[in-house]
Fold each of these.
Amino acid sequence: MQQQLESVHAGRSRSAEPSPFFRLGGSRLMSESPSKTVVGRMSRYLRQVERAMDDGKLTISSRMLSHLMEVSDSQVRKDLGHLTVVGHAGIGFQCSELIDAIKVFLGLKAQWPIAVVGCGNLGQALMGYRGLRERGFPIAAGFDLLPDVINKTYAGIEVFNFAQFASVIAQKNLEIAALCVPPNVGQETADQMVAAGIRGILNFAPVILHVPQSVCVVNVDLTIEMEQLVFAVVQKRDCGL
Amino acid sequence: MQQQLESVHAGRSRSAEPSPFFRLGGSRLMSESPSKTVVGRMSRYLRQVERAMDDGKLTISSRMLSHLMEVSDSQVRKDLGHLTVVGHAGIGFQCSELIDAIKVFLGLKAQWPIAVVGCGNLGQALMGYRGLRERGFPIAAGFDLLPDVINKTYAGIEVFNFAQFASVIAQKNLEIAALCVPPNVGQETADQMVAAGIRGILNFAPVILHVPQSVCVVNVDLTIEMEQLVFAVVQKRDCGL
DNA sequence: ACATGTGAAAAAATTCACAGCA
DNA sequence: TGCTGTGAATTTTTTCACATGT
């Protein structure tokens, strides 16, 4: 829901400059790079299309997708415009093609094995969660500092000493990791992970991580989600619902 | 990450109307109701201000907050304009006042005990997660259908037969719940929860729930977050970083 | 000097509306 | 008729710029 970003602020902007003279004729693909909101919806489209396909559908239209989710049909078409598929007028999109294109878009044609750093409650729950493996994110290794979890296995996943982090991820070729350590050691742990070559961190520790530009962070914080929920509940109550 | 919403669209806007002559009168509070993005940032401000206070700071400025997070200082000021506090020119905001105002805004002055429905891997992890209790969301009860978990306790939390859901939440006065059941029974379980009077659902099941307008849903899906991360990683790699 | 609060400008995201195709 | 793809309009969100206050 947020990421490392530069902080440049170097005066970009200016320019009423209408940009290049010729915007080109019927540009095939949508030039502008997709925003985070688009990427977020893309994942959800993927699930819906997969589900539709499981239900036996061979094609799906933007209208159908918009009914399955909370977006307008024109939004769906705009979003899918970032993909390499084309829809068929009067028909819609071929489910299989669409799934494939979204996977390509998101970078999901390959498996992304992950490391779990911190094997307490949450780390263990992640290791036991089938959903990750099923969607192409098998957990390849756990790491911890406590002797009583090191060398154990959870759901068949081995827990290594965090001291071996660099060598294990190099050997297993891991690029992304879930950070599940207590907040007070979040930053320093992240630093070590980055030094070891990790490229992406799913951060469950309730701290804002500072990482180099080359590393991506996605934060997951349950208590924030809970607070969003509470706000929505209270607001509805206030509206008399 | 999404919610039931109205569809009103009652035409506000219009008005190139340069508005009244005298803008003065310094309207105290910001009229328009806060959008979801604002609410999301509010939770994060809360954490930062709490942290600053723990670090001994008595006041905090929009500039300081903007450095701690990924927002501009004017954004911070606009956001905090939704609150009932006023900042002090030249100084900033009183941390304690600000924390209080954000809590009022978000509805966090009271505790929000929650029910956990589905006590498998994830449900158990939630019950064992201290962070929720610490932020005012103690887990008051678990529910499941399987005899081998019913009547057990996890981290001191009792697991009831889901058949008793309505009576237990009425007795314990629970309004919100975390839904941690397998996707195939997600909707039907939600239906029963709604019928029992639940007002908000933190949905961990990877399905889109259909609920009445009066009920709020916030979805949490780890695999979607993972996909966002992968996209970001691939994109950075493509940019040569 | 440092900050807030806020109109007005700019940018981004979303929706509209319709041409064009099967 | 049913649907895509896309400019243009609209709405929402963010940033700018500055008057005001301490």
Amino acid sequence: MPELPEVETIRRQLAETVTGLRFAHVHATEPNMLRDCTDQEVRATLPGRFIEEVDRLGKFLLLRLSGEGKYYLTLHLGMTGQILVGSPTSEVGPHTRFLFALGGLGSEPAAMEFRDIRKFGRLHLTPGGPAPRIRLLGPDALNREWDASYLAARSKGRKIAIKAFLLDQRNLAGIGNIYADEILWWAEIAPIRATQSLSAGETERLTAEIRPRLEEGIRLRGCSISDFVDTKGRTGGFQDRLMAYGRQGQECSRCGAIFVRVVVAGRGTTYCPGCQK
DNA sequence: CCCAAGTCCTGGTTGC
DNA sequence: TGCAACCAGGACTTGG
């Protein structure tokens, strides 16, 4: 579930708890989850470097490190990734993929653990800036660098379903399957509509729902429909506010019609055929 | 056997 | 016809 609001929830906590801490020791790595670097490079490069800043673009976390080479640690949580910050005695568990001991000048030692049941998460360690694939992302869905005319321009001639368009991180970065269903319900647009078929008014409606839905997710500290927890292991609250996602067979709270489930872009998709046109 | 929040890759189709 | 852009679907991985 880590989509933009969940990753932002984690980013805020990391910014508070690990900024200014220094990597002391690399206890565990999962080489298959590494990109742009090797296990040896991680073990050789991280110790001694401080975490100077914790940033985010879409679903990626960007940790700027101190020292020679302008190194960045770029993290993606995949489908089931978790970042936990705790005591330095944290032990390697069955789903621990990375475990780092952190120290600091005048601060308590800590441990930062990257857990991931399914190993779809990724860790990149790169000099000179964040991982190269960051450059392929569109604007962050939460910021104000984009507007309805941007979406209209990107939509031109696109035959893919509007939901597939929203899930494509090259258009906007950060929207995943849950928030896509929610945004489309609020905008009263059917997820199966061809992207290029949206009117100017519909594109405006869509634009008007994207940031508020993501902001609500952040306010409730994420959506714990399945695996998501924050860096302290706490669940979020957005799962209780879902209007469409996972509601197949139930009544639509807006029009009373029954939600249907279809597959769009290979993902389970729930929408109301009564009011999402 | 079914399903699951993520991205990446491939092979086939479309259309300039 | 040539070929890039586009698009759907599968692969990856583990668990409920």
Amino acid sequence: MITRFPRWSNESCVIPGEVRGFRKGDTIYHQGDPARYWYEVISGIVRTCRFFDDGHRQLTGFFYSEDVFGVEGPAHREAAEAVTDVILSRQAQDALDLGDKGAEIARDKVLAKALESARQSIFLFGHRTAANRLAAFLIGIAERPGASAGVQLPMTRSDIADHLNLTLHTVSRTISEFVRSDLIALDGPQKVRILSLDGLRAVAGDAESDYGLGDGTTWETGGLCKSA
Amino acid sequence: MITRFPRWSNESCVIPGEVRGFRKGDTIYHQGDPARYWYEVISGIVRTCRFFDDGHRQLTGFFYSEDVFGVEGPAHREAAEAVTDVILSRQAQDALDLGDKGAEIARDKVLAKALESARQSIFLFGHRTAANRLAAFLIGIAERPGASAGVQLPMTRSDIADHLNLTLHTVSRTISEFVRSDLIALDGPQKVRILSLDGLRAVAGDAESDYGLGDGTTWETGGLCKSA
DNA sequence: CGTCTCCTTGAAAGCGTTCAATTACAGTGG
DNA sequence: CCACTGTAATTGAACGCTTTCAAGGAGACG
């Protein structure tokens, strides 16, 4: 018995844009497709993937409810795929360039969200070892709004590996190490309980909270510029 | 004898915003400074850096003429430093949120540029080995407008290493390997001549040109959605 | 000519990958 | 209900790339 995902056309829906669902594993768009639309996740999880000549895969991001993806042009440089069953809303990329007053979502906001997602991915790669990166990844998921102590990992080990530039073996081994160190516990492969967030942070090696230290006056006073 | 960088206030300048110069090595803003401004590079090269608990450094991007950086808020999560002597233009982050008709640069454009830079960095990390990443890095620099066969590497090996998540030793060794393989030649440590762009691309392992393959109709026809 | 910074190179150690085998689990059909 | 099948996860062992430790060299500057 398969539940059906109807194709709606923004009928009686608070979220602007056309809405439809995809089943787990479906491709939403392919690498190279013309980027006529961008997408917002209503429910479920999406991954964006880039495929290399040698066949290996880079997952450039995971996108949860309220995240946006596919904001680029003129062509999608990555594919987008459904990690779980998902419901998405799409909007034309250029709809807001026209200055349409009826548009309810400012393109600014969309771009800012996409930029924030990109920065998050870059941040992950700043961590040197497998344990560093994986800890940072788990913290990132745990800090998502709506996540309790029980964290879901709906993506496979292989997905995580391709996101962190590791092999699935290293991911699996490192998770096992975390369990042995009592940093986390597993209730099945997909369900993680975080036992020590501080411990994970220590492994990740980033403080995350040392903002607001400077006085922001560098432009006026900083550097070697002593003139005038 | 030190050349002086005066502090201008957008006087007789085609580029809107306040302009000033920084000397090589200067800090433009610190990690944690309130992000009241974003910046555009007029000339020279800037790097953005994040510092970790263990003291190691991640260079999240290099920014050349016409690139923008520091587009974020409410605080800068990275520091910005001058790789070479630079001249910058800065603008208030919120100047364009007010809907000022006189603003000549749309915030859209700025965000889109920042997003493009971020994607470029993410792309680099998709490459698995040191040779892969370094080749992709060199190609990226060589493809910048204005770059001829003689490519300048004004940043140090250490900068490159912290950008690619490698050590400076591995960077140096890999460059030496490229020279031995006749992929590149060095006219001094900072000046690279690319002898075989195709060879470099092969090492990098990405085609870069396989866009436009799909038909973009996934939304309508794709996946397992067979309903209605 | 000494000092400093940056780059290069060698050798050994460590971590992640690769190759390989085993286990667990969901779905399917007998 | 149970065997069969395919996918996902875990774990072991050996290999290889990157790091680490260490030394030496090249160029700028005073």
